[in-house]
Amino acid sequence: MPPPSPKRRTFTYKKANTLEIPLDFYPPDSAHNVPILLWFHGGGLLQGKRSSVSPHMLRAVHAHNLALVSADYRFAPQVGIAEIYEDVRDCITFIRNKLPQLAGEGVLDASRLAVSGSSAGGYLAFLAGLYVEPKPTVILPIYPITDPLGLFFTTPQPHPFGGKAADVKALERFIDVDSEVVANNEEDSARSGMYMFMLQEANLGSLLRMKAGEDRWRVAKKVYECGLPPAYVVHGDADTAVGVDQADEVVGVMVGCGMEVVYERLRGVNHLFDKEESVGMEKMYEWMMKRL
């Protein structure tokens, strides 16, 4: 029999003006001093929701006796990458300082923290590894964005899954930087077209308010200066939504700097492959649990 689905509790980890930003907390049954796996969803930092956790990650709660946290964060272009990173930092501060009390005495060992994320969430995992102090124990970026100003995101791309071009008219209110700031959206929201809009316009850097000549948000360029914790990176070489060259560059720099990194560069595999029920990511979890 498969392990039972973990029970979810939701907490607000931060208020940004009047916007409450939540996280979902999935502890294992009868937890005692378990490590924490924090995961950020994808969507180009433009769209998405914390509930889009892959099946393998929910199964990992009981299979590996860990507590899973899935957190929302504010979206561009209504805020920039600097504000989104602040959400990541504040989320980790909440997990370390407040979540153990909310979870109950002896449930969590917040000193053992893995930070993961998929696509744009993988980017946030890398930023946490670069800039959050103390650093997470390990990071686990899955098909990550690593450089919004890299070739893939500055070259117009076709629809990654063969769909239609983005309807710019339908997206006007989400493109407007003065629109309401949000930290998630439902799947049937028109906002779910923002990633395709970004790919066809090749404008991720400008949507994130990145300044020309500023390297702070380009991961590979900050690895040597800031360092990274041990990393397990997964990316398919047939990814049409985030070019595999994004992961290649950062892994190459980590190797060149003598940092600990494992790279599963999957042959013929596209974006979102791990959303399938059959995908287990067991090598990643085995590596992670040896280090937590």
TrEMBL record:
SUPFAM superfamilies registered for this protein in UniProt: alpha/beta-Hydrolases
Keywords in alphabetical order, please: Hydrolase
Q: Which residues form the BD-FAE-like domain?
A: 23-132
Question: One Pfam family for this entry, by name?
Answer: BD-FAE
Q: Name one GO molecular function term.
A: hydrolase activity
Name the PANTHER family for this protein: AB HYDROLASE SUPERFAMILY PROTEIN C4A8.06C (PTHR48081), ALPHA_BETA HYDROLASE FOLD-3 DOMAIN-CONTAINING PROTEIN (PTHR48081:SF3)
Q: What is this protein called?
A: BD-FAE-like domain-containing protein
From which organism does this entry originate?
Answer: Friedmanniomyces endolithicus
